[in-house]
Amino acid sequence: MTEETVHETEEKRSRRGISSFLRRISNRLRRGEPVPVDEEQTVTVEPAEEAELEVEVEREGGDVSLEIEVEWPEEEGGEIETETQASKATFVLYEDDGGEHRWRLRHDNGNIIADGSEGYSSKQKAEQGLESVKKNVAGAPIDDLSKDEQEEPQEGTSKATFELYEDKQEKWRWRLVHDNGNIIADCGRGYSSKQKCKQGLNSVRSNAPGAPVETEA
């Protein structure tokens, strides 16, 4: 049989960055959804209900490799998509009443799950702002300001940190703070509990990297 490589990537990541990638695959498998295999979420596979799982550890030339392979008959799985959009959200660019350009991240259910924390003088700058969010959101650790606790940084994967906090109205919120001190995104509304706020944050983590961009008329 002829072997065809549909998609292949190779890059260096921290252990936590690898964990985040595998967690995304795990979550989609558990929910029975198409599994994105790239950061842009344009390449997806749908494994069969049952598949062969092979785990192999090798030593060679001073290097150690951990290989995880999942294999199933093609006719038992779903389609392999190479130009799809697995994200369940869309970035919307728009101009506000004051003439400033802004963006918001709208989930397919209609909810706004994130927005820019400021207006921009041009559409181009607003696009640059949302691209920074796309690039940094997935690997950003969470700094829980209510407990003085922070996840370990994910080296090389993000230049931003999620800050989780309770506001003066006792609502829970998050904001994404770049290493330069700028707030590049926030939740746009308060949540009734920390748990719900984290759920919203994780939805942004999952959907923002591969979300398409639309301009609102």
Automatic annotation (TrEMBL):
<feature type="domain" description="Amphi-Trp">
    <location>
        <begin position="1"/>
        <end position="80"/>
    </location>
</feature>
<feature type="region of interest" description="Disordered">
    <location>
        <begin position="111"/>
        <end position="161"/>
    </location>
</feature>
<feature type="domain" description="DUF1508">
    <location>
        <begin position="167"/>
        <end position="214"/>
    </location>
</feature>
<dbReference type="InterPro" id="IPR036913">
    <property type="entry name" value="YegP-like_sf"/>
</dbReference>
<dbReference type="InterPro" id="IPR010879">
    <property type="entry name" value="DUF1508"/>
</dbReference>
<feature type="domain" description="DUF1508">
    <location>
        <begin position="96"/>
        <end position="144"/>
    </location>
</feature>
<dbReference type="Pfam" id="PF07411">
    <property type="entry name" value="DUF1508"/>
</dbReference>
<feature type="compositionally biased region" description="Basic and acidic residues">
    <location>
        <begin position="124"/>
        <end position="134"/>
    </location>
</feature>
<protein>
    <submittedName>
        <fullName>DUF1508 domain-containing protein</fullName>
    </submittedName>
</protein>
<dbReference type="InterPro" id="IPR051141">
    <property type="entry name" value="UPF0339_domain"/>
</dbReference>
<dbReference type="InterPro" id="IPR027598">
    <property type="entry name" value="Amphi-Trp_dom"/>
</dbReference>
<dbReference type="Pfam" id="PF20068">
    <property type="entry name" value="Amphi-Trp"/>
</dbReference>
